[in-house]
Specification:
- It is a single chain.
- This protein has a 5-stranded mixed beta sheet with strand order 6-7-5-8-9, with helices on both faces. A 4-stranded antiparallel beta sheet has the order 2-1-4-3, sandwiched between helices.
- α8 packs across α12 (280-297), α13 crosses α18 and α15 packs across α16 (360-367).
- It has helices at 7-19, 23-35, 60-68, 73-81, 83-89, 133-150, 154-157, 164-173, 181-188, 211-224, 255-264, 280-297, 306-319, 330-342, 346-355, 360-367, 371-385, 392-407, and strands at residues 39-43, 48-52, 107-114, 117-125, 195-203, 228-233, 236-243, 266-270, 303-305.
- α12 links the parallel β8 (266-270) and β9.
- Helix content is 50%, strand content 14%.
- It contains 18 helices and 9 strands.
- The chain has 3 domains: 7-152, GAF domain (Beta-Lactamase); 164-306, Alpha-Beta Plaits, CATH 3.30.70; 324-416, no CATH class.
- With 417 residues, it is an alpha+beta fold.
Length: 417
């Protein structure tokens, strides 16, 4: 291992870590060995991206940051109030060895930029070996190498000055530590209200799009939907909408987005309404499933509401483990076969009748026939096949059976118009 004072040799070690394919963590590990001190990299919302520490580190603030996974709000506020410290961290000046009233140890901290835009911060704590002016110069090299590595992090580089980007990405990517959630929300400036939704928008052909196209669409979403926060995540647009009322879909608040989808060759799915922001990952998956199943079933739309499509999700899950025929009412097949033999329309009439909540007048309007025709057909079906659609279990069984047919693509297209 080269001595920390050998700037050239240590710089080469850092560049070797960059090209080794070990990612940000590998670079941070190498830096920690070179400086013989703890090293940490965070994003602009002060969420820890990677860290390496030396055995025996006793700095309480450092331990709190590592345990929580982000800088405490009080510490960030102290930095903001310390003009000298704040200006140095956010300036383009060479790194310096600093100190503050919170930590007993000195440290180096510097903003990491990509194309002149901030994407994160790098910190080295003096808790192992004394930091020297040569270390400060080497720390500048380290920050440049971290910058190069972070160019590949889409959620960090697409929209540089928005601290909620990585937070939402973190929330939808998997389970989170709910114990620190309220403090994290305060740090990133998200105002969460009573009713929340996740929207996911994807290009129809699933091809990679140029970055400026995705950024443009993210801005359209935020401008079109009040109280929304949109990020680019895995080549999709993910939007968190936080509002006071649960009528986002029925109230017409998404009409501009639905029109925009047609112009941009995109599909969009929306989750159910939810309140607990810690469950964002669950509702992100709902929005994703709404798109997948909406396209699979063949809905004539580019906007899919999971509330309306959830039954197909249930069928899809069951179909992965069991034969769907086991959940199919055999009498429906008898009706379909009867229609084929006698050129009747009983199965379609039953489907519309159930979808109209057993309202003959509404069913007649949907099928373009007289109300008396519907009464005759329903009575005939009940007599022929010994059914009573007024029974909840019968109606539910037939409704699920029709959904299974629709999921399998076995419904005539004329029925779906």
């Amino acid at each position: 291992m080269a001595l920390p004072g050998d700037l050239t040799a240590c710089s080469l070690l850092l560049y070797k870590a960059l090209t080794s394919g070990q990612g940000l963590q590998g670079i941070v590990n190498t830096a920690s060995e070179i400086f013989n001190n703890p090293v940490l990299v965070s994003d602009t919302s002060f969420k820890v991206l990677a860290h390496a520490e030396k055995p025996g580190t006793d700095d309480l603030m450092w331990k709190e940051i590592i345990k929580a996974g982000f800088y405490p709000a009080d510490y960030i506020n102290n930095i903001s109030k310390n003009d000298k410290l704040y200006n140095h961290i956010f300036s383009s000046d060479a790194p310096e060895v600093l100190s503050d009233s919170v930590s007993p140890n000195r440290f180096m901290c510097k903003m990491v930029t990509v194309g002149g835009n901030p994407v994160g911060f790098a910190t080295c704590l003096e808790d192992g070996s004394d930091l020297s002016p040569t270390d400060a110069s080497l720390f500048g090299v380290f920050c440049e190498i971290v910058s190069t590595e972070l160019r590949t992090h889409d959620t960090l580089t697409t929209s540089y000055n928005r601290r909620h980007n990585y937070f939402i990405s973190e929330m939808i990517s998997g389970p989170v530590n709910a114990d620190f959630l309220e403090e994290r929300l305060s740090q990133v400036g998200l105002k969460i209200k009573r009713c929340n939704y996740i929207l996911v928008a994807e290009y129809t052909n699933n091809k990679m799009r140029r970055e400026h196209q995705i950024i443009y669409n993210s801005r359209v979403f935020e401008q079109s939907i009040p109280d929304s926060y949109c990020i680019v995540y895995r080549n999709s647009l993910v939007t968190l909408v936080s509002c006071e009322n649960s009528d986002l879909v029925s109230g017409g608040g998404l009409e501009p987005i639905i029109k925009h989808l047609e112009r941009t060759d995109m599909h969009c799915g929306i989750s159910r309404c939810f309140r607990n922001i810690a469950d964002m990952n669950v509702y992100y998956k709902q929005a994703k499933e709404a798109i997948r199943l909406g396209v699979k079933v063949g809905f004539d739309s580019r906007f899919f509401d999971y509330t309306q499509i959830s039954v197909f999700h249930m069928i899809d899950i069951v179909g992965q483990k069991e034969e769907l025929q086991a959940f199919f009412n055999p009498k429906l097949l008898n009706i379909i076969n009867y229609d084929k033999e006698y050129n009747t329309q009983y199965a379609q009439t039953v489907r519309e009748y159930l979808q109209s909540n057993r309202n003959p007048t509404r069913t007649a309007e949907c099928l373009g026939v007289h109300r008396n025709t519907i009464d005759y057909r329903i009575n005939k079906v009940e007599d022929l096949f010994e059914l009573t659609f007024d029974l909840y279990d019968t109606a539910f069984s037939f409704d699920i059976s029709f959904k299974i047919l629709e999921y399998m693509g076995d419904l005539p297209l004329s029925w779906l118009q």
